[in-house]
Structure prediction request, 768 residues.
Amino acid sequence: MAELTYRDAVARGIAQEMARDPDVVFLGEDVAKAGGVFKATVGLYEQFGPLRVRDTPISEQAILGAAMGAAMTGLKPIAEIMFSDFFAVCFDYIANEFPKSRYMTNGQTKCPLVVRTGNGAGSRFGAQHSQSVENWCMMIPGLKVVAPSSPVDVIGLLAAAVRDPDPVIFLEHKSLYGTKGEVPDGEILDKLGTAKILRPGRDATIIALALMVPRALAAAERLAAEHGIDCEVIDVRSLVPLDTQTILGSVAKTHRCFSVEENPRLCGWGAEIMSIIADEAFYDLDGPLVRITTPHIPLPAADILEDAILPTVDRIVERVRRTLKA
Amino acid sequence: MDVLMPQLGETVSEGKITKWFKSAGDAVKAGDNLFEIETDKVTMEVPAIAPGTLSEIRVPVGAVAPVGAVVAIIAGEGGAAVTTSAAATGARPAPTASKPAPKAPAAAAVAQHAYRHSGPMDPFFEVRTPERNYGPAKLASGTFVTPLARRLAGENRIDLSRIQGSGPHGRIVAADVETVISSGAGRAGAAMATGASADQVKALYQGVDYEEVPLDGMRKTIAARLIEAKQTIPHFYLTTDVEVGAVMALREEANAGAAKNKDGEAAYKLSLNDFVIKALALALQRVPAANAVWAGDRILRFKHSDVGVAVAIEGGLLTPVIRNAEGKSLSAISSEMRELAGRARDKKLKPAEYQGGSAAISNLGMYGVREFAAIINPPHATILAVGASQRRPVEAEDGSVRFVSQMTVTLSCDHRVVDGALGAELLAAFKGLMESPVRMLV
Prediction:
């Protein structure tokens, strides 16, 4: 057991899989010699050499095209797109190529790759380098989408993603890279499509993802201490496949549900989950389903503005308190 | 029937009419070509799918109409024109918009039926949407109820209308229902829930011979409804004596004068109860405020007098309703009552025939009962309990004693709807009509 940063967990997770399976290769911009712009891949180049850890030109299409070709011909590539916003310049691969190849060839070609990317806001990167694009990825049939919130989940879910036979979008949160958590020694392997109940509670369910998870947990502690409201906090972790059983089971117990989403409000991931809850657990609901999200606006670069628009602990506490006590 | 601009292809949103094969007023048969349309992709002829008369052409040659727009009207066969004015124009959505373009033009012209899914849609197959319904989110009183509260109330047979909501804006939430469940109160439709249990009662009769009679649906309904009535309707009772000499004489005379058919059967045979029905119906017209029922947060006041009449049948009773009784002749009431009572005894009444009405009559006179007070049959506001007609001594105007035919009636009133004076007014109107029955005929 050791305390590890989220950043170091990325490198450890990649190293674990590369050491285990010689078919796993890693490519991206400045990921090798420089150790990544977020320093999340330090040491891999030294450990595995230039053949398996490669710096690429500044072309996201080239990165994903190369990764797809490698995947179709027998390797298990991990490709890094530095900022998830850049998915937009290589979206043909993400939306049309990776997720469709197995289906359109009736299984003759497969696409076992992982796209890692720095997602999310909170680091003053402005409107084109701060977006939460989990909902862009969630909407495409054929893609799996995970977004871990803790170092141990980074390693376990990355391992599950690499070993999955289909393309997986792996969303690391830029503002979580510096956070720390306990990580057991030895191999860590988690399971895609599983949510985690991080804090059991009676009165309401709060579902959150990535950076919103620690905020939801802090809000739950304050709601319990100051307002006597006992919230269950679920880290969704995997948007596709989605662990509906854990979510619906929690709502069946608490009868109230809140989502805390960093993605913009329109068509955010919480909307889909709330829709499922409304369908499947309607008669378990004792109040409206409430989404706490970033508004539907481009993200500002100014620190006070960025802080103001992302869901905060204060906002979560206030919204839950007002909804339950109104 | 509306003739619509057909869907001509998945990406085509409008069509131009290039030719009308028929003129307004022409008769059309199914399959006749009606008009020709042109889109950026095709030109085609659109036939009629129903026969009739082309009564109106709304989109002339050369004009463009969106898919789903009404381009013409075909009046129904046999001259029964189908008016479509308000519904046809404006907001009707393109009915085939989500459906692939039909291959054959014959299917295209008039699309009256919206697209329906042929199979279940189940993208997240880990769980399946349960098909349950625990009633509306909004009660008649305007109170909202959360879905969970509705489910709890439904599963525990709790009457939501008696619960005060503690949620936002008075919304009934699960906690409110749970409070009622734990207190054991508020049960609806469960006669067994009140009073002692079967075991408790049987314990009192140990060693005694008895037969256990299971409850049928009618017995359960009677128990539940009368508990509801006695527990929720604030009853009060008004009793008066009615002289029925005049009405008996009129009845004799009317029955004696009834036409007979070739088998010697009279066209009608009025009973005293028929006069009671008619008199109560007319009295309700004279005191319209009493021709009403309680409806949670308001009173419904009726134009016509619909009078329920309790009919004893094997295993219980039913209360078929004579509608618009104020306007029906005594013979019509008599024959309708006989017919309804017969079918009630055969248990062949339709629910619509014993639902509704604002007042009821219960007559136990034929058993010699002098007087009694009846329980109001919800949702009615009053019920008139009619006793036996008897010869009774009364004081005449000159102070002497004379004998008259009298019956005693008791009006049970729902005080929420009918106050004391109003009930007395209704009873007085009834008494006046019965004692001077000629007024029922005019």
